[in-house]
């Protein structure tokens, strides 16, 4: 088909050496985009004060018909190279907003967090798309959080700040994802319209044994709070890890201890059980 040929030529024109696997992924990714075949799983975010689910992070799931599960980072990276990341992100955004509005209709007024990548912030149409979807699904802006990594923001700082300010004005919340792994300085943090810090899971996974991790997580939580931000620890895999971050005053946790990312139906079941 025409689409398939475009996929190959796009790929070969820009890059030199590619494995067969990658070419297959490119074509199937384009097809999945066209057919809106990507699935989204949701991982609960737990409010440590109440112990209940206060939100969910939307995570892309792509099951390839021959290769099986393709990690989302790989899908995103490929979509970025192909220049279709924004189309993909908008599909994920729309589906996540639709799902969140379903939770609200069922009596669970919780928020949804969606990951964005570099190109998304560079697109000036992002804000109006967010508006369009929120209006379409009749969801209040305060229930949408956009997760952005430090490096994504640093790539084009002034444009990022403009975009984030516009989204912020609507009421959308901004979260810095994988905090502590990027290159942002604290001076930047002050300038950015951000409401939430997500402490990277690499500092949390071994927190029971690693005293350095304990110090890092503790001081990150304090830093976040001193700037008026909500703090979230990701990668909480055990009860003890949860208790440690709770003792530091962390606001929310996300991790396998509570639940892996699950499909929409399973997530609604989790909501109904609490
Ligand atoms: P992220 O945004 O930091 O998402 C958290 C990752 O940690 C997810 O991996 C999640 O499954 C994993 N995780 C959660 N709890 C635990 C835990 O207790 N232990 C461990 N070991 N891992 C845990 P996943 O789903 O493989 O996603 C990886 C990354 O891919 C994400 O990191 C995000 O950067 C990117 N990604 C996923 N979905 C999307 C998307 O829709 N759009 C964009 N732009 N990026 C996405
Ligand atoms: Mg994230
Ligand atoms: Mg993260
Ligand atoms: Mg990550």
Q: How much helical structure, as a percent, in the residues?
A: 40-55%
Distance between the termini: 49 Å
Rg computed from alpha carbons, rounded to a whole number of angstroms = 19 Å
Q: In percent, how much strand structure appears in the residues? A: 15-25%
| Strand order in the sheet with the most strands | 1-2-4-5-6-7-8-9
Unique bound compounds:
ligand C2E, magnesium ion
What is the N-to-C succession of helices and strands? HHEEEHHEHHEHHEHEHEHEH
Look at the structure and give the mean pLDDT: 89
Q: Would you report the number of β strands?
A: 9
Counting helices, strands and paired strands, the structural category is alpha/beta
Largest sheet: 8 strands, mixed, barrel
Shape: globular
Q: Unreliable stretches, pLDDT < 50, 5 or more residues? A: 1-17
Task: Count helical runs.
Answer: 12
